[in-house]
Design a protein that fits this description.
The protein contains seven helices and no strands. With 175 residues, it is mainly alpha-helical. The relative contact order is 0.09. The chain folds into two domains: 99 residues, Tyrosine recombinase, N-terminal domain (DNA polymerase, domain 1); 31 residues, no CATH class. Keywords: DNA integration, DNA-binding. InterPro entries: CB (IPR044068), Integrase_catalytic (IPR002104), Integrase_recombinase_N (IPR010998), Integrase_SAM-like_N (IPR004107). One of its GO terms (biological process) is DNA recombination. This is Core-binding (CB) domain-containing protein.
Length: 175
């Protein structure tokens, strides 16, 4: 410990870089979210609607963390993140909505790692839920005949429309 002698200059050696990093890491969860949203808008150039979706999804995630008494992203772990997605499933969210939330959380953790706010990306091994693809509705023969009967095939536009409908029918394309 150094002692101060009256009449002399007191020199305090402060490492402001380390202090700034410590303060940066102590940011509130919401402040970190705002920084992420700014990053998405300014540096990534994402659309405003995308940013609104990220805000909505990540605000729910932060609310979940706060209920668990988490005040820093350094306190999170893979089990906690998995528990969040179990919580979402329990609330009845569709698989597509859960996947969208997972995309937001994964991107957020990549941002936290990039900014040095966490030491590792705990979401890297979390897999997306399997999304079942719905089979297309197939028209019955009656529906196809009705479609062709009601269509107006007169003139140039009519010939075009007939060609398009026949192409769809013959190849199984969807419009």
């Amino acid at each position: 410990m150094t002692s101060f002698v009256p009449g002399t200059k007191l020199v305090i050696n402060v490492n402001f870089s380390a202090w700034h990093k410590t303060c940066h890491k102590m940011k509130k969860l919401e402040e970190t979210l705002e920084g992420f949203l700014d990053y998405l808008s300014i540096e990534r150039g994402l659309a405003q609607n995308t940013i609104i979706s990220y805000r909505y999804d990540l605000t729910k995630y932060i609310s979940f963390l706060k209920k668990k008494k988490i005040i820093s992203f350094n306190q999170t772990n893979k089990v906690l993140v998995n528990n969040y997605f179990v919580f979402l499933r329990g609330k009845g969210l569709e698989i597509n909505s859960i996947s969208r939330n997972l995309v937001a959380v994964k991107m957020f953790y990549r941002f936290l790692l990039m900014e040095g706010l966490i030491k590792e990306d705990i979401t890297i091994l979390i897999e997306f839920p399997r999304v079942s693809k719905k089979l297309p509705h197939v028209l019955s023969l009656r529906e196809i005949n009705l479609l062709l009967y009601k269509a107006n095939f007169k003139g140039k536009l009519g010939l075009r429309d007939q060609a398009v409908l026949e192409l769809f029918y013959a190849t199984g394309l969807r419009g």
